[in-house]
Design a protein that fits this description.
alpha+beta; four-stranded antiparallel sheet; three-stranded antiparallel sheet; 3 helices; 44% strand
């Protein structure tokens, strides 16, 4: 490490989340494997149509999981098969997410599942810039105080190292099919971005 003062400064910035990623799925059990997979696919297709009709772009939909496994009455006797498929949908229409979830689950029937509802910032660049500025100010204040305590003053910056982080919303929300298309009350809240700067200054 070069001679001088090395400090870590931290900063954070918050703002409303403006994008939501919803992961939905269908889970079905049938006596035959092909029938289970077909039924799960049919349920998910109904849910997918609702998303598209609501204005979610096809490019904002992506398959996030497919599974097929035997269900045993008593091993190794197979009693049937369970199939599950998942679809992730991204939307910027935050206000409509609760209503859309109700419509999607109603379309999927009893096979419908909601695995995750994650709110986030579509573009955290501005928040990162604010957090970075706050971290720099914090680092410089710390270094200035240390230099003064040592009877010195800050010289040139020797190096800067940055690390970033963020806060995620609560974890997965799972539920069985709803009895109606009533909206689910959801709050996107605010999300924050944190930046830590490790900065070194020479001493004068």
């Amino acid at each position: 490490m070069e001679r001088g003062i090395w400090v870590s400064g931290t900063g954070a910035a918050s703002g409303p989340r403006d994008e939501c990623v919803v992961t939905i799925g269908a889970e079905v059990r049938r006596p035959a494997a092909a029938a289970a997979l077909a039924a799960a696919g049919e349920s998910l297709e109904g849910m997918r149509r609702v998303l598209l009709e609501a204005g979610v772009a096809e490019g904002a939909l992506s398959t996030s999981g497919v599974s097929l496994s035997p269900v045993y009455a008593e091993y190794p006797t197979v009693a049937g098969f369970q199939a599950a498929v998942q679809l992730a949908a991204t939307t910027r229409d935050i206000a409509a997410v609760g209503r859309l979830l109700g419509e999607v689950v109603a379309a999927g029937g009893d096979a419908a599942r909601v695995h995750d509802v994650a709110f986030r910032h579509a573009d955290p660049t501005a928040l990162q810039a604010r957090a970075r500025a706050a971290a720099w100010a914090d680092a410089r204040d710390r270094a200035t105080q240390l230099a003064e305590l040592a009877g010195r003053s800050l010289g040139e910056v020797l190096a800067v190292d940055e690390s970033t982080g963020g806060h995620r919303p609560p974890g997965p929300m799972r539920m069985a099919a709803m009895e109606s298309t009533a909206a689910v009350a959801l709050d996107s809240g605010e999300g924050s971005v944190a930046v830590t700067l490790r900065v070194g200054w020479s001493l004068l």
